[in-house]
């Protein structure tokens, strides 16, 4: 173990010597799949000669700070919540989205989401407290003279630490609900006529009613989060920094926003010069499979295999639902490799093998792979795009519905509803995606777009982090909107359908456009 760490350090110092530049990076990470993604970036930074220190809570999901072979230095924050309580919270959260939500009214769902947000916010504050209330720890971090902080705005606190340490920070980010953080704090332009709000499950081709819903959702999310931030975070940040400020103002100081998508995934829309696409930075060519797994894959013959994973977080499928799925998988000619931790389903077919863990990227890159059953997480979506594998999406929460909506719109996936999923639904979806060549052709087109970039996503991410370290920021890319009061850059009017009266019609449609978020959009 120590030998592996020594080799990492030896390589880092060799790179540092040859490049003539060695930076010091501190990280405020977000857990789960976010950590899986950013870990690849951090490992690359170490390979380029930089020192990486991760501020990690003592109770977390996937960040193994006890791993002595890790190339990172871990500064463990002793949080008051236990590992058991965190696991229980996450299990309850997943159970809600997988098993309970279909039986609730929209208002009950919103109330539950608000309560979950309060729980996670409280844990975030407790994590922040373990650092901001410890003068000795702050002094230690200041003495380390870090050049940059990397954070994910989903886990509030990183930007506050950067302010305390007086260093620039960069975000690694997928999205926020309704794109509130990107729009209100980052200044990103989002015309509601053709830019669907995240979590709305819409595309850029919207009817008038969908555009109106999109506009209202943006409006509601703005009001909700501005009020929530004011109540929960603005005073906290002001007290810690000793001056009046807000969470959004502090987030807006991010030098670069590394967005974990690309135009193979996104719908065309305006972006800012300090927003950079790095989607798929974790993807890589497939490596050989373990011997036993390769033999099983080869036994599939001309039918090939199906890869099935619902991600790193989903492990509590009900036994009933597991049998529904297993029965469907037993009815297809392909061999199936299923990442699954629960009780073995009694309907499991001889063509299906279950594993606690699978080398997903390597399986998706195997020439015999025909389809990928996925929950729609961004990491898995990008591995499928990278290797050109069509998808059957079974989204459950967070960005997953939006991700699958994007893939459906681009003809690379079909979607199933987990709450109503029946055996025949999955059988039909698999047969459609595998036997209809259009899905394969479309995802191969996306794969060609992904690979045909002037700079690889991982190299692009590293470049901008190093750029910020070299220049102590990237202020020349920062839009002037950050320095205006919120009313100045947002001339608003109310979107209305075309009136029945010819006179009113002439008055309204003389300027037939509505201004929103810096951009004129046509609504009638």
UniProtKB/TrEMBL annotation:
Gene Ontology molecular function, alphabetical: glucuronosyltransferase activity
Reactions catalysed: glucuronate acceptor + UDP-alpha-D-glucuronate = acceptor beta-D-glucuronoside + UDP + H(+)
E.C. designation(s): 2.4.1.17
Membrane protein topology class: Single-pass membrane protein
Localisation per UniProt entry: Membrane
Signal peptide feature range: 1-18
Membrane spanning residue stretches: none
Keywords, in A-Z order: Glycosyltransferase, Membrane, Signal, Transferase, Transmembrane, Transmembrane helix
GO CC, any one term: membrane
PANTHER family: EG:EG0003.4 PROTEIN-RELATED, UDP-GLUCURONOSYLTRANSFERASE 2A1
Family per record: Belongs to the UDP-glycosyltransferase family.
Name recorded for this polypeptide: UDP-glucuronosyltransferase
């Amino acid at each position: 173990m120590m030998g592996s760490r020594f080799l990492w350090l030896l390589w880092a110092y060799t790179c540092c010597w040859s490049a003539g530049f060695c930076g010091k990076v501190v990280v405020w990470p977000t857990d789960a799949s976010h950590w899986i993604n950013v870990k690849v970036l951090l490992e690359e930074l170490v390979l380029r000669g930089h020192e990486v220190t991760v501020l990690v809570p003592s109770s977390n999901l996937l960040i193994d700070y006890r791993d002595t072979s890790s190339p990172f230095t871990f500064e463990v924050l002793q949080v008051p919540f236990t590992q058991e309580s965190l696991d229980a919270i996450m299990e309850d959260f997943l159970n809600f989205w997988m098993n309970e939500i279909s039986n609730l009214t929209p208002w009950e769902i919103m109330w539950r989401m608000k309560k979950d947000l309060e729980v996670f916010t409280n844990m975030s504050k407790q994590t922040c407290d373990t650092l901001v209330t410890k003068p000795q720890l702050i002094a230690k971090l200041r003495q380390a003279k870090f050049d940059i902080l990397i954070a994910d705005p989903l886990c509030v606190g990183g930007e506050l630490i950067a302010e305390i340490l007086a260093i620039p920070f960069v975000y690694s980010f997928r999205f926020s609900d309704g794109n509130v953080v990107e729009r209100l704090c980052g200044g990103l332009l989002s015309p509601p006529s053709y830019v669907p709000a995240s979590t709305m499950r819409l595309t850029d081709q919207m009817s008038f009613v969908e555009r109106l819903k999109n506009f209202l959702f943006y409006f509601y999310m703005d009001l909700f989060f501005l009020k929530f931030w004011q109540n929960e975070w603005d005073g906290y940040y002001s007290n810690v920094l000793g001056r009046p400020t807000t969470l959004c103002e502090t987030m807006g100081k991010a030098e670069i926003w590394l967005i974990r998508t690309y135009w193979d995934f996104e719908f065309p829309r305006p972006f800012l010069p300090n927003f950079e696409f790095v989607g798929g930075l974790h993807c890589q060519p497939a490596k050989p499979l373990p011997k036993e797994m390769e033999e099983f894959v080869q036994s599939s013959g001309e039918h090939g295999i199906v890869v099935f994973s619902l991600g790193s977080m989903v492990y509590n499928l009900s036994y009933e639902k597991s049998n529904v799925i297993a029965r469907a998988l037993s009815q297809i000619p392909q061999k199936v490799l299923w990442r699954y931790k629960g009780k073995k389903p009694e309907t499991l077919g001889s063509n299906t093998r279950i594993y606690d863990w699978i080398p997903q990227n390597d399986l998706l890159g195997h020439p015999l792979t025909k389809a990928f059953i996925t929950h729609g997480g961004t990491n898995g979506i990008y591995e499928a795009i990278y290797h050109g594998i069509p998808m059957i999406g079974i989204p459950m929460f967070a960005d997953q519905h939006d991700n699958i909506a994007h893939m459906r719109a681009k003809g690379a996936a079909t979607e199933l509803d987990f709450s109503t999923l029946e055996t025949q639904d999955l059988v039909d979806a698999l047969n459609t995606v595998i036997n209809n060549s259009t899905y394969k052709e479309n995802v191969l087109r996306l794969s060609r777009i992904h690979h045909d970039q002037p700079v690889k996503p991982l190299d692009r991410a590293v470049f901008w982090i190093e750029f910020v370290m070299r220049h102590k920021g990237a202020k020349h890319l920062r839009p002037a909107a950050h320095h205006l009061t919120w009313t100045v850059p947002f001339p608003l009017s109310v979107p209305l359908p075309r009136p029945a009266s010819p006179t009113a019609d002439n008055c309204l449609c003389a300027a037939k456009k509505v201004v929103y978020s810096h951009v004129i959009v046509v609504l009638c």
